[in-house]
């Protein structure tokens, strides 16, 4: 059984539970020959700590280690101190493939210097659903050819710096009303519509993508029983056979409620591998990780996962690791100058995506301004927490006399109670969640600054600026616009913002 366990361990990617590689985890990785680890924000303190951590992981997992993170850009980043990349939709709004390639390369330089060789990006989901609770600005846009062209340029930049990409979430998470972290979504579209829209980016990317991540979504037209992660007709029938894809297929996190609330950890992992996945992201507890390894080992022993197919999976993973060796690639002495240049690049990219809706007006410098924003800094569980209201007030304070008012709940906040004193009122939206009926019916700021989900700009009959993210350079771009230093030249790459129809 030990031989089967060693094979099984190479087919999983695990979550780690601290900021250093403790002795028990080191033993677990070595015992089961685990080669994949995904790190999250809670595993990171600073560059010195993280580089030490990834170095210890390379030592424990060996030369074919795959050390991954989600560094998409925008709100979905894990290393928050490196140059802050714009979100996918900000790059889609800029519509500049060369700029996207430069950003992808800069992201890769930063994460490779920290010891990563696999980035779970770019997102290829096409977002035409204004109520999607988890994708929104993570998508490059709604047009298959344009959005995929920008995404592929980003991927080329990453690959040029030695970091593997993983396009996601196959066969498409853009048109869902449910977050698969919380429940199991269904996309009930006919095959022809899926092929025309959702499939298109993955079909285009198939010849070039190093890896593809699966979606925990049921597509009844493709497989009425299993979500894509566990569907052989989808992973093998469509991705492998129809699209001719030869790279690595990895599942999304198997601890997400769409899977974990319906299947046992071992059962789910075996189902995914039988369907055609090469690696299972076992990022639950240590107990579920051990359960996963044991279930996969038993499936290999019993022939449920035939040994030749297991060997083919291991070969694909070995090729991925060999093409993208883990570990820093550049001379450390070059790092400060390179980081300075990359921060300037990111600032330029955020500015290029800045988008105006309506005809927003700039209050004169020094004017009294009332800023209204959420009191709390929230995360949706996928993204990092948003920008604090005080930080926005400080940024606007460079130009104006700012009075800050915060609210805890948009649906109970009384907009009509604001003093009618002639102050220019700016609403800054700092969460992903759309506004409810009370706010939509009663609020009307002079300017709405949508610092996260661009669809929030549709919630009010007010001029808006959309940044597609809340990182410091996004807020700096807003201040530069207010100061008259730049114009908002981005074009929102999804329906509803430029005279096209959308249901809001």
UniProtKB/TrEMBL annotation:
InterPro entries: GH, Glyco_hydro_3_AS, Glyco_hydro_3_N, Glyco_hydro_3_N_sf, NagZ_Beta-hexosaminidase. Keywords: Glycosidase, Hydrolase. This is Glycoside hydrolase family 3 N-terminal domain-containing protein. Belongs to the glycosyl hydrolase 3 family. SUPFAM superfamilies: (Trans)glycosidases. Pfam families: Glyco_hydro_3. Residues 9-320 form the Glycoside hydrolase family 3 N-terminal domain.
